Amino acid sequence: MLKQDKLIRNLIIIISILIILYLAGNMEYIYIPLLRILTIIISPIIFASFFYYLFRPFVRLFDKKNVSRRVSVIIVLVGFVAILSLISYFGGSMISEEFSSFVENLSEQLQLLHERAENLVSSDSWLGSYSLDDIVDRLIGALESGFFRIGEFTSGWYSNIADFVTIIILIPIILFFLLKDDTYFYETALNWVPEKRKERVAGVLSQIDEVLSIYFTSQLIVAFIYGVVTYIGYLIIGLPSALSLAIIAMVLSVIPLVGPILAAIPALLIALTYGLQMVIKLFIVIAVSQLIDGNLAKPNVMGTRLHIHPMIVITAVIFGISMFGFVGAFFAIPVYGVARIVLKNILDNKREATN
After folding, report:
1. 254-306 per-position pLDDT tens digit
2. DSSP annotation string for 86-135
3. Residue 312 within any structural domain of the chain
4. What does residue 121 show for φ and ψ, rounded to 5 degrees?
5. Domain limits at 222?
6. Is there a contact between 237 and 282 (Cβ–Cβ < 8 Å)?
7. Is the distance from CB of 70 to CB of 184 less than 8 angstroms?
8. Are 150 and 325 in contact (CB under 8 A)?
9. Is the distance from CB of 302 to CB of 219 less than 8 angstroms?
């Protein structure tokens, strides 16, 4: 009888939630402004948290030197801005010229590739009633449609310039207070928890902190290593625009599994115009980079502490892209890791209460 009552109660809760979601979906005048407000609040917190885990080791290094937390945070943030300024001053023009050359080179190589394909395939061949232009137009249309949808999810967050500026301003402010008062926030959160649950909640928070710290810091280190290895490989095989292609590979490699595949596309398009030999060399470079990344960089930097199956990674990344674009793809894994920890502890707690 008790089990039936519990089942009925759960069904009522689920149905109520579905009804609320349905009604909310038909109240755009309510949820669109609410979503905008939540975006302005949540987005800077998410990005500030990301930078928090990057800068926290340096702040704690100053803590060991008995430097005031406020002073150490200011030193770390000013140092970061100074490094960015130096990179921009000394290497900004070179990187800009490299990317301009890359865009021009890619456009020329694509045109050359199209001309070669036109010579190879005629409209009255096995393509039937379709000409090569028709097929190319269809492929380009499909790609544009896909990237447009991804762009909608990403840029839709910041369709208003004022919102974007607000978020950019809030990120360093929130980051400063996270670095300065992280212990205070942790202790305040625990004070809201009943005494008998404090130990369990403290353990959950510690696990979440460890997962986020491991993921964010190690993912950037691994991406940098991958970019350097890829750049060296592109230089060895003589692939044009090696620096631009390596930077693209480094940036996209922060997206698990999907990123390196996307990064290889522009390199492959350029390599195709230089013949089969260059394509084979490119695949060798990509294979070597992946071997170093998967067998040396990730095991030594990230370790096996996250314990996430590749199929779950793929699913989470695809869901993240479909919901929030490339930003969602990057944050999909840590969100899954946090959700898994919370759910596991809830189930463990229920199991203990039952026993």
Report:
1. 877 778 888 888 888 888 877 788 889 999 998 888 888 777 666 665 555 56
2. HHHHHHHHHHHHHHHHHHHHHHHHHHHHHHHHHHH--TTSTTTT--HHHH
3. yes
4. -120, 125
5. 193-355
6. yes
7. no
8. yes
9. yes
